[in-house]
Amino acid sequence: MSFNFDDEQACIDHLAKIRWKNGVVCPHCLSKRKIHKFSDNRRYKCADCRKQFTVRVGTIFEDSRLPLQKWFMAFHLVTSQEAGVSSLQLSKEISVTQKTAWMMLERIRRILQVNSFNKPL
Ligand SMILES: [Zn+2]
User: Fold this and answer.
1) CA 44 – ligand 1 centroid, Å
2) How far is Cα 89 from Cα 92, in angstroms, rounded to an integer?
3) Is 74 within 8 Å of 108 (Cβ atoms)?
4) What is the pTM (predicted TM-score) of this model?
5) How much distance in Å is there from the Cα of 41 to the middle of ligand 1?
6) Based on the number of CB atoms within 10 Å of its own CB, is 13 exposed (0-12), middle (13-18) or buried (19 or more)?
7) Ligand 1 centre distance from Cα of residue 5 (Å)
8) How confident is the model over 22-45, as a mean pLDDT?
9) Residues with Cβ < 8 Å from 58, sequence gap 6 or more?
10) For residue 29, how far is its CA from the centre of ligand 1 (angstroms)?
11) What whole-number distance in Å separates Cα of residue 38 and Cα of residue 58?
């Protein structure tokens, strides 16, 4: 498999890079004035609303407990297979239940349609 996101942190960094091309934006108040990044490299805190967040907040990954690794692997499969990927195939590839795979495919198709990781309003 040609997937090269070896660890969860690499995936988190990758999502942050795609999502915040022009700097980190607070998903709670949309401020980008002063965002503090914690040393765990995962949490941020906004100085304006004083709320904490991770890169997943405000995205379709927010309420998912799956590691981003599995999400990115699924993305990779969906976008690299011209014939498409079935939920059964995906469930085997990334070791999740078929029900989970089905839910992932639904979300991934939606993302590809609107070209954004942001949750629909
Ligand atoms: Zn804020």
Assistant:
1) 10
2) 5
3) yes
4) 0.82
5) 18
6) middle
7) 29
8) 96
9) 27, 118, 119
10) 4
11) 19
